[in-house]
Design goal:
alpha+beta, globular, 7-stranded antiparallel beta sheet, D-amino Acid Aminotransferase, Chain A, domain 1, 12 helices, 33% helix, 21% strand, Dna Ligase, domain 1, 2 domains, 4-stranded antiparallel beta sheet
Length: 344
């Protein structure tokens, strides 16, 4: 005889309905919330505003750093660039005695191939998680970068070795053994949305959300953190550190906004993301520019990007020659954080 069907009580049904409604949305609901998906991002904002000829300026981190320095921005010091297998076998000569550093592909994306080294233990190199790598492991990683394992399109690449940012103490408290970075998304030079990406034990010192890092929404007007997500779900505290993530004032916020707008001016890209880190002694450093910024920033801020992008489109149409101060003033005035009526 088959088991009798289990009938949930009304409270359970209502609870499950709220859970489903919270995490799953119909296309109509997403449109009403202003959520931008990848197809809309590409068709309406990325392709019309980012000429293909300009991608090389940001897809190659060496060129981006050179441009930033030409425009007076601070960047992480470059220790060396490994360009061939011969030099990969002698990678330690590029370190110049530095025991903490970052190795990344010059044409990588999404945090792929980024190796953060916190120090040394004898001959071995120590990652933020405490995992040790032998000199052979380091050479193998650099060789994989050269082979294009982490690069856009799988093309052969160079390995960039640079200064490991020592984050400002306030931000160190929000991140597990890693340097948090700030992502600012721009349209026509107007900052529209920002978030802090803080590492966790799971993300191994990296700030990539897909690897388990935390996305923390930042109010454009004030630089104060307003919301946080981990694996797409809202959180108030860091899962490893237990520290509160909401209501934190990001240092030197106006400088960060100015750097972001300058990155748009120097590249000519209309739609982009700018990544910045705040060093304890060097202040804000431009890390990289992304011509295809991801969309998880909407979750971190609890608001759809369309709510910010459409006003910018209209403002840019009315004032196509607005200068840097005017663009920042507009964003601060119109994108001040509000508690969302519905969360995404």
């Amino acid at each position: 005889m088959p088991d009798a069907p289990v009938i949930a009580d009304e409270k359970t049904v209502a609870s499950e309905h709220r859970w489903w409604h919270r995490w799953f949305r119909t296309p109509g609901e997403l449109h009403e919330l202003g959520v931008v998906g990848i197809n809309m991002r590409n068709a309406r904002f990325l392709l019309p505003n980012n000429p293909r000829r300009l991608y090389e300026l940001v897809d190659n981190k060496l060129r981006t750093k050179a441009l930033a320095e030409e425009h007076g921005m601070n960047v992480a010091e470059t220790y060396g660039v490994v360009r061939n297998p011969h030099d990969a076998n002698r990678v330690e000569k590029f370190l110049g005695g530095n025991e903490s550093f970052v190795i990344k592909p010059t044409r990588g994306s999404g945090g792929k191939g980024v190796l953060v080294i916190d120090g040394k233990n004898g001959a071995n190199f120590v990652k933020p998680s405490g995992t040790e790598l032998t000199p052979g492991d380091l050479r193998n990683h650099v060789t994989n970068i050269l082979a294009g394992l982490f690069s856009l399109g799988g093309k052969r690449d160079y390995a960039l070795i640079e200064y490991r940012v020592l984050p400002a103490a306030l931000l160190t408290a929000l991140s597990f053994q890693g340097a948090p970075d700030i992502r600012v998304v721009m349209l026509h030079g107007y900052p529209v949305m920002a978030m802090l990406r803080a590492s966790t034990k799971e993300s191994d010192g990296r700030s990539n959300l897909h690897q388990g890092a935390i996305g923390i929404g930042i109010d454009i007007a004030t630089g104060i953190t307003v919301r946080a997500i981990h694996h797409g779900k809202p959180v108030n505290r860091h899962p490893d550190l237990g520290i509160n993530l909401i209501g934190v004032q990001i240092p030197e916020w106006d400088t960060i906004l100015r750097m972001s707008v300058t990155c748009q001016e120097m590249t000519g890209l209309g739609y982009l993301g700018v990544d910045i880190m705040i060093d304890e002694t060097k202040g804000p450093l431009m890390i990289e520019v992304n011509a295809r910024p991801g969309l998880a920033i909407q979750m971190a801020n609890g608001i759809g990007l369309m709510k910010r992008l459409e006003p910018v489109v209209e403002e840019h149409r009315r004032h196509p020659n607005a200068d840097l101060p005017a663009k920042i003033a507009f964003s601060k005035k119109h994108f001040r954080a509000k508690l969302p009526t519905a969360r995404i």
